[in-house]
Amino acid sequence: MSHLADRRARLAAEMERRGAWPDRAPWIRRAAAELPRQAFAPDRLWCWDGRAYTPVDRGEDPDRWAELVYPGPDDATITYVTRGVPGSSLSCEAIVADMLDSLLLEPGHTVLELGSGSGRNAALAARRAGPGRVTTVEVDEGLAATAAQNLKAVGAEVAVVVGDGAAGRPGGAPYDRVISTYAVDRVPWAWVAQTRPGGRIVTPWGRLGHVALTVAGDGRSASGWVQGLAAFMPARGTGGDRSWRRVRGDGPSEDERPFTRDVRRLAADSGNSGTSADGADSDAAVHLGFALRVALPEVRITTAADEDGMNAWLHDGDSSWATLSAVGGGRTVADQGGPRRLADELERAWDRWSAAGEPDLYDFGMTVEPGRQYVWCRDPGDPWWQAEDHVPAP
């Protein structure tokens, strides 16, 4: 068995072991086998070496290339890098399966996909919906051309259109199903307006969880539950927020005080469950992390452990920051600066989650209306996050 075939078999076996193939949609597993990842992977892939993304060429290192094409179920394959930042990928196999399962796709459905990438997701959807039933929109002309070439090579009859995914594709509306392969902070109203009443929209939201929305019978709203984790790339033009170091700057801390919560609970690992090596419950960390993302959608949180304990860095991509530093003896100190006090905001959001009984990410849902959208917990009448947009009513 070649190394490529071996890696492909390993990924399939791990998906099987984890029960990652949806029971209610066996077509996804069959389609994934018929449309292997390597058919959509370019000869040059990219990997992180700890400092930057470096190229891996199939002709020079075929074994490493195979490992990148067929990584673990929760790992993406980076296919395109621009200005040192990933711009496209073959998505994690587990998330691809989960999102297609959430779409509730049936033969004959018309499908609009936003973000063609390599074309594989559109090809998978076309295997279920049928020839000529899927339209995919890609903002990058080069990626669109590659996707079209890949789709033709595997015999998938999919229309590839160059355009801004946020605008959808009004010429083919209404669609039965809409799916986005990139994360949005706000669901464009155009997606709802172009989906038929009773139709379904699946998209990663907030770069952490993906939601499945059903359009109301009058077409004036869409609502639904969070379906799972989905760490997808953001829409073009929204992923260039400043680093923590640039936001922090070199000035002195403006506020320092003890931080009494267990910072280990912020160290979420979405690919695992149970108890982490440092004793933190990683399932609870995932759910806490999602609740904090809902309450503080613009705040980025990173964590790392040292000999004194777990540390965390927060910033809003603009001018406010905080550091939660372990100082030994189980103690943590919060430093913060900028117009906002992010450590204080974090505590308030954490307290709300605790007071609500530490809800799971699956307890959250989203409603999108013409002028606003909001994320709620258990009950649509309990919004935890809300955004208003200037969108004309339908």
Question: Your description of this structure?
Answer:
Helix content is 27%, strand content 31%. It has 394 residues and is of the alpha+beta class. The chain has two domains: 3-229, 3-Layer(aba) Sandwich (Rossmann fold), CATH 3.40.50; 244-355, Double Stranded RNA Binding Domain (2-Layer Sandwich), CATH 3.30.160. A ten-stranded mixed β-sheet has the order 7-6-5-8-9-10-11-17-18-19, with helices on both faces. A hairpin with a 2-residue loop joins strand 13 and strand 14 (309-315). The longest helix is centred in the N-terminal third of the chain and has 16 residues, at 3-18.
Overall mean pLDDT score? Answer: 89
The strand order across the widest sheet is: 7-6-5-8-9-10-11-17-18-19
| Amino- and carboxy-terminal Cα gap | 57 Å
CATH fold descriptor of the largest domain: Rossmann fold
Low-confidence stretches: 269-280
Largest sheet: 10 strands, mixed
Task: Estimate the helix proportion, in percent.
Answer: 25-40%
- Mind telling me the CATH superfamily name of the largest domain? Vaccinia Virus protein VP39
The second-level CATH architecture of the largest domain is 3-Layer(aba) Sandwich
Number of domains: 2
Strands, total number: 19
The string of secondary-structure elements, in order, is HHEEHEEHEHEHEEHEEEHEHEEEEHEEE
Q: What gross morphology would you assign?
A: globular
CATH class of the largest domain: Alpha Beta
What structural category characterises the helix and strand content?
alpha+beta
H/I helix tally? 10
Offer a quick outline of the entry.
The protein has 394 residues and is α+β, with helices and mostly antiparallel strands. It has 10 helices and 19 strands. The chain has 2 domains: 227 residues, Rossmann fold, CATH 3.40.50; 112 residues, Double Stranded RNA Binding Domain.
